Amino acid sequence: MIDFDVALKTLLDGHECRLKSEILPLTQAANRILAQTLTARYPSPLFDNSAMDGYAVCDPEGGLREFTIVSRTQAGDTAASPLNVGEAVRIFTGAPLPENTTAVVMQEQTEVDGERLQVNAEIEAGQNMRLKAEEIEAGQILLAQGHKLDMAALGLAASQDYAEVSVYAPLKVLVLSTGNELAEPGQALADGQIYDANRYQLLAWLQAQGMSVSDGGIVPDDLAQTEAALQQAAEQFDVIVTSGGASVGEADYLKQAVEKAGTLTMHTLAIKPGKPFAWGQVANAAIFVLPGNPVAAFATSNMLLRPVLGKMAGRAEHDWHLPKIRVKAAFRTKKAIKRREFLRVALGFNECGESVAELLPNQGSNMLATCTRADALCEVPAWETVSEGDGVNVYLLPH
Predict the structure, then answer these.
(1) Residue 250 pLDDT > 60, yes or no?
(2) How far is it, in rounded angstroms, from Cα 269 to Cα 277?
(3) pTM over 0.85
């Protein structure tokens, strides 16, 4: 068996992003991956402006509480004339500040009588003022290559006058299952058959990753049909994902078909769940063979497949992996095992307000129901046990 970290490094070292890029308008670029680095075209804020509705005042020395209102400015207006000491301007959120403004006082802290403004609170120099370029300076990196264009990123690009951007083409992934023992949901089960769960969880998971995903259905246990299906898929897709069928058994035709049509690297990994794992190449398509047990497929998808597909899709390295945090264990394990274990846990808080991981029941690799309740995968290193209150690493699952 090989170590998890070794397997992950080998996977990442052996795969690259080879996707072409295209120019898209922002309206069509949602959730795509940037193929260019965007730099700020303008400072942000673009000019000094008010952070709230109230009054811009001029009081360089501090201590004034009464001011004369000389003008009114709202968002979209040109800034009012420069203020003299003791003067104020009625101003609204986002409106440009007049020169010599020393603070903005919220309207709830004032009383107005004609042109007379009375401030009923302490005034702190610079309060409620948004200063030019305090967030972003022109020329600095706005969004790096590999950034996913989520709602915030798209809004930021639009705020800097980017009408279109260069993005990677989506990674094209085919998901298929193999085996006469599998049946489609909605069909009657023959003796010895089970419903195909892995393909459906993988299809949903890959779609959530922003991939262009297609369903390859179930391929029967037949060497010629399996080989033909792989060769056809390799002509149309960047990646083929399947699960099970890569053992040394004589009826496991997937392994034979991959080796006949391309290359296959098989490993037993020192992790639980997810011991059997294979990857290889069929023509120009990468193929990944996940374990057949549904929880093992769930765990290896998140811990191994996510990083390598993220790299192949052009994502920035910091976005390849699940977020990892440190929490306290609200459980204990009975004995150490020789494999690194990834346990399904729910996150909560103890009586001290500390984040804790609570072990979910039914941790068997065939027990998929617990995955629907899991907030994270908790890592237990090989040959170690966990006691209640120990610090543990957990990997946050997307919801």
Answers:
(1) no
(2) 7
(3) yes
